[in-house]
Amino acid sequence: MLLRVYLGWQWLEAGWHKLNGGFDASKFLANAVQYPVADKTTEAVLFPNYTYFLEHVVLPNVKLINFFIPVGEFLIGIGLIVGGLTLAAAFFGMMLNFLFLFAGTVSTNPWLLLLGFIVFAAGTNAGRIGLDYYLLPLLRSGWAKVTAHKGKAFRNGGHKPLLR
């Protein structure tokens, strides 16, 4: 729990600073495209598909990125701190760390990635002392109702399977 809360605080703080500081990723993204991660000896670009993705998908939609990155970091932090949807928060935190690393930013990303992996590897136990204790049983029962309802429709005159 302490590791999860520490990691959550790191994400929450990063997101909060970006939300209040007029975050703009356009210069960072332009630099990541102009100076991609490359091999020191051959100068070959190591992640050419990612650089292409940044240039042709992310940069044209930088306004969305300027919204999603700070809000995402903030929500990841809240999820980890309160222990709500902990696995999803840890997963998306690790994804952001990988995206930042592929763009060439080392900073605290390897450390946060390692901590995120530990929280993610803990599975549902990571949020046991938190909202997941109450939230996951509700989600499971809701999912069971949805899937049971589909099964009843199938048994009561729905489409019949092609193979028996």
Give your account of this protein's structure.
It is a single chain. With 164 residues, the chain is mainly α. 70% of the residues lie in helices and 0% in strands. It is built from seven helices and no strands.
Summarize the helix and strand pattern as letters: HHHHHHH
Q: How many domains in all? A: 1
Average pLDDT, all residues: 90
* Beta-strand segment tally: 0
Low-confidence sequence ranges: none
Strand composition percent: under 5%
What is the overall number of helices?
7
Q: What is the share of helical residues?
A: 55-70%
**What shape does the CA trace take?**
globular
Main sheet specs: none
Q: Could you tell me how far the N terminus lies from the C terminus, measured between alpha carbons in angstroms?
A: 49 Å
- What structural class is derived from the secondary structure elements? mainly alpha
Radius of gyration: 21 Å
Could you name the key traits of this structure?
70% helix
Helix and strand topology:
Layout: H1 2-20, H2 26-34, H3 48-58, H4 62-82, H5 86-102, H6 109-121, H7 132-155
Helix pairs in contact: 1-4, 1-6, 2-3, 4-5, 5-6
Can you summarize this structure?
With 164 residues, this protein is mainly alpha-helical. Helix content is 70%, strand content 0%.
